[in-house]
Design brief:
alpha+beta; Phosphorylase Kinase, domain 1; 5 domains; two-stranded antiparallel sheet; 14 strands; flat
């Protein structure tokens, strides 16, 4: 959804420096997930920048932004700055990306149309060298572009010189890539869940882009995504895309290398660099054509390769029947395919699914089907019911479809079953990247299983999307992405009048995911069902965690919003004098608007402990007196021996009460 231009001549200012002009859209610079507007740099006084306003429905690539700003000289559209702006003419906020305005033209309009063709020499001299250099710089920093296509390439200047890459941060990685430009593994996933991938995906997309620019045509013309994926899987990307196009042997070698569907033999950047500089690189390896003796039967068909079987199982997950507790798949892998590694993965899938396999007969549990598909095709995305996403694409797809309750439910299952962790273990082993991702998703398993406020699927959303705006209905329009902006947003929302406190599942999860300090004690208090005062303490504790200024800013409207909910904190005090003091002091604390001070007031643990101890002592003294009265009223009081024994015990007890009472009185006087 593009933002509405106000037409009033008003400007939106990014970080006090860049003036964004909402009444001057730049349609020719639009991205598939963002609308472009003219912009002006106050510092330099020129207009050689423009702004992209991403569609709020799509998360930007948060982890890429700061790194793109600090990249050395590269052949890419330069990211200058970014930030949240108040959109003129509305009460809403937008995220803005400020880019250097390119001097040259696009090789293809973003909305389609003719592709600017280049001869082989021009491709070898003006396109591949600068783009490969940029991708090499990306790879050194563990970055990927994931938006390489002719419509996202520009001439460096107004002539026919070098080519530079366009932007890649305004939406999820590879979301806007046409299907021809994505590898089989990426094309299997939902566009929002394709993930960051690796340089292998960028090399593949570069190869398809070169083909389109050489031929001036869409390599996938006339074919939809499903048909194209099926053709790539059966015939291979090279034959599916390059086909009978006439070209030199040198270029054919290039396309064989970069469009190899086997990741282990596909050319990487080193091979492309070697081919560019010496026209020499490893020759393409022909694929193995061995066919197993027996296919695996499913839905009336026989499948002879694991990938084809996994694709069929994932597409009909509710039709997978188990006849031998999953051992039928294990037997096929060992005896028909003779693949011990595959058999080991199938065995792992079975062991991880013991809880859901049951008797091993009947319809298979969806989680087992998902793990089985991973075992058969570990490079494919996680496929669970209708969701298909790579592990690093789960954050974007969760943000994209969070409003869908059915999707939320299935996504919660994915996390609770630790399907991402299973997929990572099967593909990335014990490498540093895989280990880091495994730790992340292991933590999310416990979070997803906890249904209390501040946890659950909402927390997973914010943990996986660092720039995901808080979706609380109280502040959704303000696009709060940073913790420092939460209290100002609640202060603004306080003017509207609300029947509920300024805390809900989204605000609690947002704070817990963004706070630098541990908030688990606050969350436990917030979710107490047996102590109203603890709920208040938890709520104030969370809000104070969002007070990044440490109380230096007054939020008086928010404090007044909170005041009616503070009664249990005062009423729970047993000591009448203390309660009266607290009731008298509370209005002045609220009046300051200091949320941190308000939290300290309600969470005075030492005073509450002394109040509890004093109350316990008073109850003990009252119980002792009641015991004395009962004794004196009984017949035992008239027995001399029992009276003597009771008197001795009474003397000890009274001494203890007097001693403890003296301590309580002393503490009271100190207070």
């Amino acid at each position: 959804m593009a933002p509405d231009a106000s037409g009033s001549g008003a400007v939106a200012v990014v970080n006090g420096r860049f003036e964004l002009l909402p009444d001057q859209p730049l349609a020719h610079m639009d991205a598939p997930t963002a609308q472009a507007f003219a912009a002006h740099d106050r510092r330099t006084g020129d207009g050689d920048v423009f702004a992209l306003i991403p569609d709020p429905a799509f998360p930007v690539r948060a982890g890429l932004l700061s790194k793109l700003k600090s990249l050395p000289e590269t052949q890419i559209l330069g990211l200058v700055d970014y930030g949240v702006v108040s959109w003129p003419g509305t009460d809403e906020y937008r995220f803005a990306l400020i880019y250097e305005h390119p001097l040259g033209r696009r090789l293809q309009r973003e909305d389609g149309g003719p592709i600017e063709t280049m001869a082989e020499d021009a491709v070898l001299n003006n396109l591949l060298p600068p783009v490969v250099k940029t991708l090499e710089l990306f790879a050194k920093r563990s970055l990927t572009h994931r938006a390489i296509r002719p419509s996202n390439m520009f001439r460096l200047d107004s002539g026919a010189g070098e080519v530079i890459l366009g932007e890649c941060a305004s939406g999820p990685a590879a979301l806007s890539q046409p299907p021809a430009y994505e590898s089989i593994e990426s094309l299997m996933a939902d566009p929002a869940g394709r993930g960051m991938g690796s340089s292998a995906e960028d090399v593949y997309a570069l190869g398809v882009s070169v083909l389109a620019i050489l031929t001036g045509s869409d390599p996938a013309a006339g074919r939809g995504t499903a048909q194209l994926l099926a053709e790539k899987m059966t015939a291979g990307s090279y034959h599916c895309l390059v086909g009978g196009h006439a070209m030199s042997d040198t270029l054919r070698q290039f396309f064989h290398g970069v469009l190899d569907d086997r990741r282990e033999t596909r050319w990487g950047l080193p091979q492309v660099r070697a081919w560019l500089t010496r026209q020499d690189a490893p020759p393409p390896n022909p694929p193995d054509q061995l066919k197993p003796d027996r296919g695996f039967p499913f839905r009336g068909l026989s499948f002879y390769d694991p990938r084809g079987l996994a694709t069929a199982l994932a597409g009909h997950w509710d039709s997978v029947l188990l006849h031998d507790g999953g051992h039928e798949f294990l037997t096929w892998a060992r005896q028909s395919l003779g693949d011990d590694e595959l058999a080991e993965r199938v065995l792992t899938a079975m062991e991880l699914s013991k809880r859901s396999l049951g008797s091993g007969h009947g319809t298979a549990h969806p989680a087992f089907v998902s793990r089985l598909c991973m075992a058969l095709d570990p490079r494919a995305p996680i496929r669970y019911k209708q969701i298909s996403a790579h592990p690093d694409g789960l954050g974007p797809i969760l943000a994209r479809q969070f409003a869908d309750e059915g999707f939320q439910r299935d996504a919660r299952d994915i996390f609770q079953e630790d399907l991402p962790g299973c997929q990572i273990r099967m593909t990335q082993g014990k490498g540093a990247k895989g280990a880091a991702m495994s730790r992340t998703f292991s933590r999310l398993v416990a979070i997803a299983k906890d249904a209390t406020s501040g946890h659950g699927i909402e927390r997973c959303l914010y943990e996986l999307n660092p720039l995901q705006p808080c979706l609380s209905p109280l502040i959704a329009g303000r696009k709060v992405m940073a913790l420092a902006d939460l209290l100002p947003a609640l202060e603004a929302a306080a003017a509207g009048g609300h029947a509920a406190p300024p805390m809900d599942r989204h605000i609690a999860a947002f704070i817990a995911a963004r706070a630098e300090t541990n908030t688990e004690d606050f969350l436990r208090a917030l979710n107490r069902t047996d102590a109203g005062e603890q709920v208040v303490v938890g709520m104030l504790g969370l809000l104070s965690s969002a007070d990044t200024e440490g109380g230096a800013v007054a939020y008086k409207k928010l404090a007044r919003w909170l005041k009616p909910y503070l009664a249990p904190v005062v009423e729970c005090l047993r000591h009448q004098k203390w309660r009266a003091l607290a009731e008298a002091e509370l209005p002045s604390v609220v009046q300051t608007g200091n949320i941190t001070a308000l939290y300290r007031f309600v969470s005075n643990g030492d005073a509450r402990r002394r109040d509890r101890d004093g109350y316990a002592a008073a109850r003990a003294r009252s119980a002792k007196i009641d015991s004395q009265i009962r004794y004196l009223s009984s017949t035992a009081s008239r027995d001399p021996k029992q009276a003597e024994a009771y008197g001795h015990g009474l003397a000890v007890g009274v001494s203890a009460i007097v001693f403890f009472g003296a301590i309580v009185v002393a503490v009271t006087l100190i207070i």
